Amino acid sequence: MPLGAIEAGGTKFVCAVGLPSGELLHQTRIPTSTPQETMERVVAFFRAHQPLAAVGIGSFGPVQLNRDSPRFGFIANTPKIAWRSFNLLGAVQRALEVPVALDTDVNAAALAEARWGAAAGIRTFLYVTVGTGIGGAALVGGIPLHGLTHPEMGHIRIPHDRTLDPFPGICPSHGDCLEGLACGPAIEARWQTPLSMLPGDHPAWTLEAEYLALACVNWMCTLVPERIVLGGGVMQAHLFPLIRARVRDLLNQYLEAPELAGELDRYIAPSPLEGRAGVLGALLLAAQAADSGKLAGG
Amino acid sequence: MPLGAIEAGGTKFVCAVGLPSGELLHQTRIPTSTPQETMERVVAFFRAHQPLAAVGIGSFGPVQLNRDSPRFGFIANTPKIAWRSFNLLGAVQRALEVPVALDTDVNAAALAEARWGAAAGIRTFLYVTVGTGIGGAALVGGIPLHGLTHPEMGHIRIPHDRTLDPFPGICPSHGDCLEGLACGPAIEARWQTPLSMLPGDHPAWTLEAEYLALACVNWMCTLVPERIVLGGGVMQAHLFPLIRARVRDLLNQYLEAPELAGELDRYIAPSPLEGRAGVLGALLLAAQAADSGKLAGG
After folding, report:
1. Which end of chain A is more exposed for a tag (fewer CB within 10 A), N or C?
2. With a cut of 0.90, is the ipTM above it?
3. DSSP A75
4. pTM: predicted TM-score of the whole model, two decimal places
């Protein structure tokens, strides 16, 4: 029986019906508006393709993933006011009456990278998306790392030399955390230019590579991933060599492993699933829910 | 049959014979000199208490923990030149002919904290020691996190405002990484005063709390541990409230969990095993080696 997959994003919901092999049979994109309007269209899409064995959701966050919480499956303290405290998992489960599995969008994407993408066969790695925000997921021994909450890797603090870069950062919670300095909207605000208008030799990219390299080094010292996969709209091809060179300089040969010798071409890798990792990961979550055969909560 | 435990440190080797319950029957401290001289005394201590079921070692680092490496069990690129490329695991195994398990000193200490200390019953947490260096260990689902290498959490980069703190840092590899700014010798070098001579209201402690709070926030955003246990010679009692207050400010309520409400008194906790965590953790490693009944390598 086919599976349902939802990549629930802040600007659009990508919904698909597919098979555990990763083959997508039907797909649609629904703009994110109010929860009621969005979910009506999401549910209508899946009802047209029933029966489904299960549905998986990779969601924007923060989202409550603690099964012991009465708010398990709820969107938490997001800047998108209409979605705050919305029971996303419950809404899908009640409407479709199938097992539903939920994780963050980045955790879902990391699962897809481990299965079909840049981290195939690797058990402990980091997946980071740099776009309208910055999010990170760690797979440890093949399983997405969940501690007290899901990670919020975009909000680490990194060195910010205000004489070189007086831009104060745009994170509403932290100002100049990594996301505040280096997400797509931060680049556009700093240089007063749309991303697509910044040429490859613009100083914006050297600065961006510096911030992302500092973040990579911090994540490496903390998690020692076997690979770092970087995706998202900001991660254009010319950024990779700049980031790799700065990571080498900043590490200064401190972490010793054959994978860190040389140019880091394989170690810091682009996502070959770009744009599809989220929905493919949601499909894997659905397959897990179908296998476990039990309701994931709600 | 009793177990052998070695906390292999840069200044001393603490050796003990004990039971899986944590009871220590015999204990000795051997100053760290050359590998040959040190190991002769270590081996003589354990020979006097044979038979032993197994020996566990929590070692200073960096140390090669990848079982697939021909240098598994070797001390790696340490500043202590005489110990570079020394086969610590092999030396103990050959001399005592028992199963030997090896991990880093901080990973061993974290295991002891999980069993008998500040993280008893907690599966995913962070143990950090702040002393002559800064080292961190993460237990994820009860197991020490090992990726490409063991973590080197002391070497993350944090914001360093050189107008407020012109001290350049003392890390030979990175200058002003966390360890370079905030380990014990860095504090003493910055203020030209021994740690024990710095009164509790000295500005050294506010600055130290700032750096450690920035590090805690970065580790929290990346690993979302359920608790952070801070130990080591620098972690005097008056530092804890300063660190907790700054972590609250820096997080700005971004991570939502009941454990992070309030004063963080339980979340950022001192180690009740202070000074004994390393050797107790080595005892747990020995128990694992005895249980698995197989040689850990060499």
Report:
1. N
2. yes
3. B
4. 0.94
